[in-house]
Specification:
Length: about 270
């Protein structure tokens, strides 16, 4: 018996991550690209857009119309934080499983979207990071924090990234906070002579965001103890490195009900 082909729509298809998703879908015989949505380059063949042969799917700028006409099983969204929640609700309303690689969701948003997914009997995923290496970095950091509770997170991205700290840094901090009791680090009389120089404060530890041209995506978690330090670091060099994770998410979300927050829940 042949496995059912999963029909995929891609929102943000003309963006740097969106183009990689389109290429990934077109290159997997178990997936079918049925819609590509972008504000720019409408009426362009999605295959041509990403440097491949024409695939017969033209880019549109109307997400709802694309969902209605193409009836995808899954929507992969790499758009903007301003569009993320609206696009997720729209997908759920049309019983399309949303896979959101876009940040901007509050805990209240996630809880409400979880209810909506369960009401429709479908699964969904909100993932700050689809890199399997980055997920392992987060898990290792959470494990280490049980033994090294004094830590700081430093994340590096290009200077055009809009949010700070990154979704990956926030997710890392949340995983650490689940297993580490809140601890106020450093000297209680510490004083910043330049505001913000010590970074953002989360559960007693600091998160630092570096934004520079020429940087892609890196994060390190530094742990300190008497006489020793431990550094756990992950470096991403190419957006294609996220695609095995996106591919896994597209296939596994078909078997879930409810909104999942964090790609780590989909890997063993």
């Amino acid at each position: 018996m042949n496995q059912k082909i999963i029909k995929v729509a891609v929102a943000g298809a003309s963006g740097r991550m969106g183009r990689e998703v389109v290429k990934m879908v077109l290159g997997d015989p178990e997936l079918e690209l049925v819609a590509a949505v972008a504000r720019t380059v409408p009426n362009t063949d999605a295959g041509r857009l990403v440097g491949m042969d024409a695939c017969g799917v033209n880019v549109t700028n109307d997400l709802e119309l694309a969902l209605v006409e193409s009836k995808p099983d899954v929507l992969v969204d790499f758009t903007t934080p301003q569009s993320a929640v609206v696009n997720t609700r729209l997908a759920i309303r049309h019983r399309v499983r949303p896979i959101m690689g876009t940040t901007g969701f509050t805990p209240e948003d996630i809880a409400e979207l979880d209810k909506q997914c369960k009401a429709e009997g479908i699964g969904g995923l909100i993932a700050p990071n689809f890199s399997i290496g980055a997920i392992l970095m987060m898990k290792f950091a959470a494990q280490a924090s049980k033994y090294f509770p004094h830590l700081e997170i430093i994340e590096y991205h290009g200077d055009q990234k809009l949010d700070a700290p990154s979704g990956t840094a926030v997710k890392t901090a949340e995983l650490i906070a689940e297993v580490r009791e809140e601890l106020r680090q450093g000297n209680p009389n510490e004083h910043e002579t330049i505001e913000g120089s010590r970074g953002g404060l989360y559960q007693g530890f600091r998160i630092h965001s570096v934004r520079l041209p020429g940087v892609f995506a890196q994060q390190e978690v530094i742990f300190g103890a008497f006489g020793q330090t431990l550094k756990i670091r992950h470096d991403s060099y190419d957006r294609a490195g996220y695609m095995p994770g996106v591919n896994t998410a597209v296939k596994k979300v078909m078997g879930y009900t409810g909104m999942i927050y964090g790609f780590e829940h989909l890997i063993d």
